[in-house]
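We modelled the chain as a single entity of 99 amino acids. Its sequence is:
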Amino acid sequence: MTESQRLENIRKIAENTNAQVSPALANLIDELKAEKIAEEIVVEHGLLQATKQEVEDQVQEFASAEDKADEDDDYDNDENLHDMTAISPSMREIFEENA
């Protein structure tokens, strides 16, 4: 059973029981129907061609993400700044007690 058929069954059940569907549920059902229609259009006709503006926006997002990645700290970089073979006094106590 497809999603649209399930939604139609829910609608019929609600009508048959004379139940009031909350506005939130009605909105959700409408959104799900719209998403399903959009999905069917894409499946039948393929995606729409991207506009030049959309491509430029995406390029800018990639460029800004790349710049941000360069600015982020390298979390492994601290290994170059500290003696990684040294053990802190508290860790040394733990290992010496168990040894």
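As a brief sanity check on the tokenised model: Residues 23-45 form the longest helix (23 residues). Residues 3-71 form one domain.
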